[in-house]
Every structure is written in C-alpha cells, then in structure tokens.
Design a protein that fits this description.
It is a single chain. This protein has about 325 residues and is α/β, with parallel strands linked by helices. The chain has a single domain, classed as Ureohydrolase domain (Arginase, Chain A), CATH 3.40.800.10. It is about 30% helix and about 20% strand. The chain has nine helices and ten strands. Strands 1, 2, 3, 4, 5, 6, 7, 8, 9 and 10 form a ten-stranded mixed β-sheet that branches. Helix 4 links the parallel strand 6 and strand 7. Helix 1 packs across helix 9. The two termini are about 30 Å apart.
Length: about 325
C-alpha cells in the first residue's frame, strides 16, 4: 500500500466516518481528507479556506450521530446500514505559500487512497487543489472529469503562475489519463476570454451553462458522460446559486440549485463509476449562520449515500 503523508486531526470526523489516527485505511470504501491550501497567486490570499473541511465536518451538529436514520434524498441510510466503510484522515499539513509542497502531499494522499482500493473525497481549499488531486489518478485512468463551477478555469497562466485556480481544467486537459471533461454551471463573467473558451471546446470539453440545466434539466450534462465511464466529480461551491451558497469568493446569481446537484450525483452514480470527489472554494468566514456549510456537507453526504447504495447493490 502506498504511504500516506501526515495529517492534522479533525475537530470531529465527518458524519458517519471513523477517524483513522493511525492512518490505517485498509478495507475502506471511501476516505475523506482536507486539503486546506493549494498553489497561491502572488498577491492573492488563500488562507480563507484553512478551516473549510472542519466547518463541513461540524455542520450537522448532533444530527451527525443519526447515521442509521433514513435520508429521503437517496432513499436509504448514509452508510447502507453499516455496509460501507468511510474513513476520515483529517487535514493535510499544507501551508498557504508552499505551492509545490502542497501539490506533492495532495497527490501523494490521493494515490495512497486509490492504491488502498478506496474512493478519495477531498475537501479544499481553493480551486488549485484539484490539479494534484487529478494527477493522483494517473495509474487509475482513464477518467472523465465532471466539474460543477461558475467558471471554466482554462487559463494557461495568471500572474505568471500556471498551476493556480484559474488553470485547473487547462492542466487537467494535459494529463494523458484525462480523456473527457464535462463542465456544468458556467455563467456570468470569469477569467476566461474568447481564446480560452475556443481552446476548451477544441480539446473536446463539453461546456454546459447553468441556463441549459435550468431549461433542459440535468440530462443536458449527463448526456455527455459515457456509460460506465470512470468519473471524478469536482464541485466548486460557486457553481451553486448564490442564494443557497453565498460563502464563496465569487458569488454569482443563476447557479445550480441544491436539488439539481443531487440529481447530477444520482445520475452519475447510476450511469457511470464515480471514483473520486472533491469540493472546493467554501469560505467559512463568509458563512456566519452556518447554512452554507450545511448545504455543502449535505451534498457530500449524498455522494456518500449514493456510493454506499451502489456498492451494496441497492436500487436507491
């Protein structure tokens, strides 16, 4: 089994998860970990994401003990009545300005989880942390990336940095094991210019704006996913509508609803093989009431519940 890097213990394990203080992930179906920092841009602070994973972990409060209670979103219990093993490793020991070191430990953790036969679930972090997360699947491809985001992230560089949060999908497109990219929820202004949109489409990325989902339903995105594809789902919280997810750096109206994201998760787990998930760009200090954290954690719990039902052979 590949070696895991070191982690900071979580305040509390994510709902349904067992904290593995000894880093033993043998027999796990899914392994969750935080990646607080990625690759910074000069002059842009990336420290606001440091406590994102812990905010999501504690968001359910006492409800986190109710893992045997029925969840009607996926018509079952979170861990399929104990048949699904979820481990929480805590947070990687990343540092705000240590881009190269951060990338190394994120990729190392991802590779180790995959080598153990489990699905990695990563909580970021800014939108640069998925780059090493995707790199970690190099020996487990080919993969199709399904991105929920307000922005396409195809810049070659920004402020001289090619591995920052505006370049995530551009770097992913250069990885030989990434054979498909489906981008869902784009709207409004972003860092992309005409040439980045042209490059993305020429590569073969399927860009599904938020208004296409609102008008035609989630099938507007799912039709671009091949049956049986190995999919990695990356969820930028600003892909959700600002009315339900204001705790992001770039809130934008017109995003996906909570139920649309749940329908996407349901469709992916039914049609494809969901092999990895990350959630990024949640900013705890912009969530004084804690409602955005509940929304984000609810989405992750649906990933877990759907995956557990599929692993256990349930029709949920």
């Amino acid at each position: 089994m590949a070696d895991l890097p070191t982690f900071r213990p979580p305040e509390t394990a994510f709902m349904g998860a067992t904290f593995a203080a000894d880093r033993d992930i043998g027999g796990a179906n899914a392994v969750l970990f935080g990646a607080p920092h990625g690759t910074p841009y000069p002059g842009i602070d990336n420290q606001g994401y440091a406590e994102a994973a812990n905010a999501l972990r504690r968001s359910f409060g006492t409800d986190a003990d109710w893992i045997d209670h029925w969840n009607f979103d996926f018509d079952g219990t979170l861990l399929n009545d104990g048949g699904y093993r979820l481990i929480d490793l805590g947070d990687l020991e990343t540092e705000p300005l240590a881009g190269e070191g951060n990338r190394q430990v994120i990729e190392q953790a991802t590779r180790a989880v995959l080598a153990a036969g489990a699905m990695p679930i990563m909580i970021g972090g800014d939108d640069s942390v998925p780059i090493p997360f995707f790199s970690g699947f190099a020996d487990h491809g080919p993969i199709t990336i399904v991105q929920v985001d307000a922005h396409i992230d195809w810049r070659d560089e920004r402020r001289g940095e090619p591995l920052g949060f505006s370049s995530t999908m551009r770097r992913a497109s250069e990885m030989p094991h990434v054979t498909g990219i489906v981008q869902v929820g784009m709207r409004g202004f972003g860092s992309a210019r005409r040439r980045e949109v042209d490059i993305a489409r020429e590569w073969g990325a399927k860009i599904v704006p938020a208004n296409a989902i609102h008008h035609s339903g989630i099938d507007a995105a799912l039709r671009h996913v091949e049956p049986g594809a190995r999919c990695v789902l990356t969820i930028d919280c600003d892909g959700l509508d600002a009315a339900i997810m204001p705790a992001v750096m770039a809130p934008t109206p017109g995003g996906l609803t909570y139920l649309q994201v749940l329908d996407l998760i349901a469709g992916l787990t039914a049609k494809a093989d969901l092999v990895g998930v990350d959630m990024i760009e949640f900013v705890p200090e912009l969530d004084p009431q804690g409602t955005s954290a509940i929304t984000a954690a609810g989405i992750l719990s649906n990933v877990i519940g759907r995956s557990a039902a599929k692993a256990g052979g349930s029709s949920a």
